[in-house]
User: What shape does this take?
Amino acid sequence: MMNVPGEFGVGEVDGALSEYLPGEAGEPTGRYVLTLADDVVGDANAMKATCQSVAGVSNVVESRELSEGAAEIHELSESDAVLYPTLGIAVVAGAEDRLEALSTAAAEDERIEAMEPELTVHTLQQPGVLATDYLRGYRDAANELYEQASNGHAAGVAVEAAAPLFADTAAFTWGLQAVRANTSRFSGQGVPVAILDTGFTLRHPDFAGRRITSRSFISNQTPEDGHGHGTHCTGTTSGPQRAPGGTRRYGIAYNDNIFIGKVLSNQGTGTDAQVLAGMEWAVNNRCRVISMSLGSNVPTVSAAYEAAGRRALANNCLIIAAAGNNADRNDGRFGFVGRPANSPSIMAVGAVDSQLRIANFSARSNPVAGGQVDIVGPGVNVYSSWKMPDRYRIISGTSMATPHVAGCAALWAQATGAGGASLYALLIRSARRLPIPSVDVGAGLVQAPQ
Assistant: This one.
């Protein structure tokens, strides 16, 4: 597979797991994820037989057979496993009495590519970075420049106060202007796009009449978004051309077909099993693009997510994921791309601000295969839809940058018919180059087709 160039919280620590923010390093759930070899994938009976013999389970249930909200193994008994046949992945309970046998079989059986612990995942919204923080930062920068101008005046140095390269207007958000979605003649017409997140506010007035297919993979929760993060991300990928409330346009692919997979709870957390279930569902529904503003603050690559990304590409589907917010560049800490974005077959998205500077929180490439930032999108003070009654909100994060890339991917899919690896390459080739090291921005700023 080609590897094109190239929310977590604040507090990246150059690999020291002990310094991660609580709950963001990806805690083990006690279950295990098996990645099946390519020559087994495609034969459901062979995959089930492999899981039964290797994992020592008596019953293997395909994910499509589960009722809504039953994506995890804890919904079944310890003698069961859940199989995602399109992705060639299974999740099994980690019963202590068979763990050693499972590890040995996974290491020796050619039908198994890898076995790894299942981890928790989280939303990738940058906490506490709202419009007020932006205004404070802008004020401080303006004051500093004013002081520089005053000090340099006698020497004839002309210094002007900085202004955003882009800014929200009455018509468009700054992000839509930066990626040139506001001038694109494409709308994502008919392109199926999946947003795997905290769900969506299904009765949001801005989306009345839109085609929305939804499913929850969270136990005892409907696809309705009780958090807001998923509604915000969906607004950026797929918001209306003209919002009925009269606000500025904030959505890119305003005519796409929306698929909402609730893989994170109303508290913004989930598990690998839930995310994989959503990915399997989206690929089986022939989604061309999957947007995932989620992850774990873990630098190592997951074999399961890499296999899922590779097999999604083979099914003409591109997975786009947030690189992570584990940097604090003001303190000289640059972070690293976490999982699943660090998988070679998944596009990793960093964030820039309205002056096209790398966001303080945006993760830098790490040295694992696939660990580079591939592309960036607008991710600071992004205006989009939110759960009711708020309706709209301005927030920041690589979570917010990711749906900008996914929305543009939908426009490119409509414009060219491209999908999978071809769509990946198109986004990279068409990106706007930035005067920032590629370890931070990859190929540059995503651009919409004109």
Notes: The two ends are 29 Å apart (CA to CA). Confidence is low (pLDDT under 50) at residues 1-23, 128-161.
